[in-house]
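Design a sequence for this backbone.
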């Protein structure tokens, strides 16, 4: 089983990949329809192959991020890091440093 950190990194990486893919889709459609350089109205007449490819890639990345994100979230709920653990360690460290000459 993967660690919580690995699951989180995988899920966030997949979401970032999906966001970049959908941005490429938007820009490539705008560029193919002449909406990037001109100040006039643009017409939606073409759907470039690159836009379709990156839309599929973004969808796959989002689907792949769902399961690790759920497992990461469930692991964080079942095994939370308690502040009491850190407080006890900090208190012990503070008292031992005060006792040292």
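Sequence:
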């Amino acid at each position: 089983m993967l660690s919580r950190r690995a699951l989180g990194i995988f899920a966030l990486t997949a979401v970032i990949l999906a966001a970049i893919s959908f941005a490429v889709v938007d820009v490539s459609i705008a560029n193919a329809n002449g909406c990037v350089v001109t100040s006039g109205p643009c017409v939606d007449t073409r759907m470039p192959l690159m836009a379709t490819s990156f839309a599929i890639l973004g969808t796959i990345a989002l689907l792949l991020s769902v399961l690790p994100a759920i497992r990461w979230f469930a692991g964080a709920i079942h095994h939370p890091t308690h502040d009491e653990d850190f407080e006890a360690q900090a208190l012990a460290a503070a008292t031992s440093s005060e006792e040292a000459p």
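The chain is about 75% helix and 0% strand.
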